[in-house]
Structures are given as structure tokens and as C-alpha cells.
Amino acid sequence: MTSPAPVLRPVGNARAGAAPRWSRWRREVGATLTKAAEVLATPLVPADYLDVFAPLRKGADLRARVVAVEPETADAATLVLRPGADWAGHVPGQYIRLGVDVDGVRQWRAYSLTHGPRADGCISVTVKAVPDGVVSPYLVHRLKPGVLVHLEQAAGEFVLPEPGSPRHPARLLCITAGSGITPVIGMLRNLYPSTAAGVVRTARGATYDITVVHLAPSEPDTIFARDLRALADAGVIRLVSRYDDVHGIFDVAQLSDLVPDLAERTTLACGPGGLLDALTDHHAAAGLPLSTEQFRPTTIVPGEGGTVRFSAGGADTTVETDGARSLLDAGEDAGVLMPSGCRMGVCFGCVVPLRSGAVRDLRNGALTTAVPGETGPDGVPIQTCISAAAGACEIAIP
Fold it and tell me: What is the C-alpha to C-alpha distance for residues 182 and 111, in angstroms, rounded to an integer?
């Protein structure tokens, strides 16, 4: 025979049920007051007012405040940012997407973080101004401390495997060009922190034997030149600097001369598409391990171009474009407010529906087509930053 369930009674405080009732009452009153405040604040909501006083608070849209803009070269600067309370942290080598309002238009770009976790809780990225660019010149030359920027959580797989893992490369070669140094300097700074007393040798850093081959147009154009020299002087890396104005354009065939033990190293490379393509072919032929990070897509045989209709909010904009130009650039040049992000095919911030027609992937030449009545009413999602017109097509802009 089953015994009856015991009766649970409050112990000590005869009003033990008061606390839950009090909490429930406070929640209900709080919700009522919030609703009332929203009515009084229409068309704004209380969160809009909180943004004025506590924009980096927990639960708010993730943003960061610019703490400092530190010049690196004549056309590059490091942005020191204090992220909001919901920032989840990062692994050195990862990147973030920053959203900034330039001349009244929100623009998003991806930048590699240039450090490991910092004691002050800040994060930093280093930006090189692109001639005729929209965002990078603004960040380097016009952005001021105190400004709020929009932020997304860190992402990316271009990171060092942890010591002890099967993929941990004891002997490493880092090949960087131009701003491609940014994710690698983040890894190096985390392995070998720099203090007023000099570079610190860490137990984790001691598990690596690292050679860095850095390419730049000239020594004054080298971002983080001082950091690289300090690491080399401390003996924690072997540095090979190659400047176009001194050594000529780099040829990957020279790599085995610059790095005699190349076959014994795992290569990490970051830089322009042409360099990475050449390294990919070189390492594949030699059977050498290679991991790459590319900031922009490599354009191969282009499509034939055509007429593109951008449909946005009931208004259509029609442009003629060639097969070598991305749909994102074509739309922006025509004045269409295009969603965008990293502009390199990684973040998918530029995905929109292709309603009809064909586009070609600028990275590999693959065609994507949409036929009304066959592909569905929502069309086919495409990334405009890495796609070009391959004939007439229509794109819907949210």
C-alpha cells in the first residue's frame, strides 16, 4: 500500500509564502509601469531613454564606445573600444563587425582583433584607410573618442590551436601582407605580452617556434613594425621583412630561400587574394599545410554583366553593370541602401533574395539562377558582396 505524500510546511517563518507573492507583485507592478511609460513615451520607448544614459548596459543592443584612436602609419590607426556588458569575449585571430553611421548611412565592416584579452576590458582593431573607401577613411581620420559604434560578437576560425591539441603546430610560419598582419599580431601579443619591462615569455608561447614573413610596399607603410621588431629582438619570433621598394614584388618561389625549414612548418597566411592564391598553389604542389584568412574575395573569370533591377520598398532602381563588379557596389553606386557587413563573403550580412535572373559568384564562377514560378515566391538568397550580374536579374532589398 502506498503511503500518502508528506505535507510540506514552511519552517521557521510562518509567512514563507510571502516572499514569492511579493516578488510576483513587484514583477506585475513593474510590467504595468513599463507599459505606462511606453505609452507616455510614444513614439519612443524607455529603452531609447536608457540608451542615452547607459548605452552599454546588459540587455541593450551590443555597442562599443570609442576610447582612443591611435595612429599607426599615415593611413592606418588602431581603434580602442569599450564593448557593452554583453560582450562575450574572443580568441586572438578572430574578427568583429563594426557598424558606423557615415554621412547618415549605417555601414558595416569586418576587422580583426589585434590583441588577446585585455586587463582593462577593452578591445582594439587596426584599420588601414582604403583609397576612395567609405568607411575606413572615416574610421582612421574622422572618428573621435566618445563616439558609439555598433558591434557584433567575435567570429572566425583563423586562430591558433591550443597546446596539447592534435592540431597544435610546434613550428609555425606566419605570412602576412599589409593589413593582413592584424589577426596575426593579435595571436603574437597574446602569446608574448609586451610590458614596460619588455616582451614577456609565457609558458604557452614557449610551445611555439614562430617565423613571421611580413610583406609591405615600404617600411613606413608597415603596420605594427615596432611590435614586430620588439618580438624579434626579444627572440620569441624570427622576423623576415620584405619591402617592395627594396626587394621588389614578392614571389612565392623565394619562400624556401627565406625560410629554409619551410617543409617543417605549418603556414598561416593572411593578405590579398592574389598572394593567398599563389600560396595555395605553392603549398598544394609541395604537400604543405596551409591555413588562410582573406579580407576580400578573389575575382576570377567574370560573368557577362547585364541589367539589374533593385526593388526596395515599392521603388525600383535599374542599373547596367558589368560582370566584374559586385552587386553590392553596383547598388550602392546607384544610391540604393544595401545591407552589408564584412564585404568579403564571410558574415552573410548582405544576403538578399534573387527574384529572377542569374548571378555569378566572383570567387569560383558558380552560377545561381532564379526563375519566377519555379524557385518560389521568396526567391533565392544570394550574397551581393561576392556576386556579379550574369545577365538581367532582379534583386529584392528589404
Answer: 8
CATH number where 107 lies: 2.40.30.10
Residue 168 lies in a domain: no
Q: Which domain holds residue 379?
A: 306-397
Is residue 208, in this structure, part of any structural domain at all?
yes
Q: Pseudo-torsion of CA 194, 195, 198, 202, nearest 10°?
A: -60
Please, which pLDDT band fits residue 3 given cuts at 50, 70 and 90? Answer: very low
Choose among 205, 209, 183, 210: nearest CA to 194: 205
Residue ending a domain, among 266, 294, 322, is 294
- On whether both 314 and 256 belong to a single domain, the answer is no
Q: 365: domain CATH number?
A: 3.10.20.30
Residues 220 and 263 in one domain: yes
Q: Which residues pair with 176 in a beta bridge?
A: 214, 270
CA atoms 372, 376, 377, 378: torsion sign? negative
Q: Dump pLDDT digits (tens) for 322-372.
A: 988 999 999 999 999 999 888 888 788 899 999 988 899 888 788 888 877
Q: What are phi and psi of 229, to 5 degrees?
A: -65, -40
**Model's pTM, two decimal places?**
0.66
Q: What is the 3-state secondary structure (H, E, C) of 196-213?
A: CCEECCCCCHHHCEEEEE
**8 Å CB contact between 195 and 223:** no
**Strand, helix or coil for residue 56:** coil
Domain tally, the chain: 4
Rg value, the chain, Cα: 27
